[in-house]
């Protein structure tokens, strides 16, 4: 029997919980043609929220197409431009002849062409017949607007892991040019095409959209607060009941606290519990499930710690132990942080490694709750952890 807890892909319908308000906000923004940005730690539900919102919009009569590209495997300008162009063209074509026609119609005069041989051997819609120039860049960045307006259909362009654009040399220039393009689009083009930028590297996305102010007044940020604990407990208790099992609500309350209501971790954990048990789910089952979940992630967690300097490890320990005044003489002395200037560098380093972030009160938050549990209990061997 399939587990009632889905953690390996986005979910909609009865499996999508606790995001009703965010879905209404997102849907209103998208229907109004507003570009959107969302950034949260992995497995917190961005994809599920998007897909549920699109589903609700279609049920309400909305007609549109969705294109999605990921920057996860992009490390050069050419790959980015080709992926973006191909994603837009695929929305309105399905055969070689149609691909060739749209490439000629919307990218004529550029160095992007439809190569029948490349399409036959690699299903590549766009190829280059010369080096990329500024005209080619502009043609691709404006293509989603032009093709949506020209073909008469509304499109939503999702660019996931958007922060990874900054990993290749031209990334910052592309972001600047994309800003200029967005500022220059006509009202008709804006009504035809909306961009959605998402990212799981929270600090890198903050750096682009908040600290450097990119796309200022061009995109709306939709934050995802933690899902309400009651919603999670109701959902998991109901899920266990569908497979003939019972769990005490107090036990699930402890699970929510441990994972800080991260729905991805909770679904994975609950799925393991479901596979281990029959009838009543007791605390020993939860302990075994947690051990199994940790064994999956431990190599990644260990590699993260091995990548840190001694000073960075010391600052992380200070954070884990609840300190916030890192530049005080007492904390610097106790944790061997050297100096207040060094503390600033260490904070920046841990943020760039996406281990911590700072909330609106400028207090540190470890981004990954399971990593926090592991590093507290097994790396630093600090007692009185959130064992459940």
Q: How many helical elements?
A: 17
The share of residues in helices is 40-55%
Secondary-structure element pattern, one letter each: HEHEHHEHEHEHHEHEHEHHEHHHHEEH
Indicate the proportion of strand residues: 5-15%
Categorize the overall geometry: globular
| Cα-based radius of gyration, to the nearest Å | 24 Å
Number of strands: 11
Structural class by helix and strand composition = alpha/beta
What characterizes the major β-sheet? 5 strands, parallel
Walk across the major sheet and give the strand order: 2-5-6-1-7
Which stretches of 5+ consecutive residues score pLDDT under 50?
A: none
Ends distance = 27 Å
Mean pLDDT: 95
3D architecture notes:
It is built from 17 helices and 11 strands. It is an alpha/beta fold and 388 residues long. The strands form 4 sheets. It has a 5-stranded parallel β-sheet, with helices on both faces. Strands 3-4 form a two-stranded antiparallel sheet. Strands 8-9 form a two-stranded parallel ribbon. The radius of gyration is 24 Å and the shape is globular.
List keywords for this structure.
388 residues
Any chance you could write out the topology, listing elements then pairs?
Elements: H1 20-31, E1 35-39, H2 46-59, E2 65-70, H3 77-90, H4 96-107, E3 112-113, H5 116-122, E4 127-128, H6 134-151, E5 155-160, H7 171-184, H8 187-192, E6 193-199, H9 202-211, E7 219-221, H10 229-242, E8 246-247, H11 249-259, H12 263-276, E9 280-281, H13 283-306, H14 310-320, H15 329-335, H16 340-352, E10 356-358, E11 364-366, H17 369-379
Parallel strand pairs: 1-6, 1-7, 2-5, 5-6, 8-9
Antiparallel strand pairs: 3-4, 10-11
Helix pairs in contact: 1-2, 3-6, 6-7, 10-11, 12-13, 13-17, 14-16
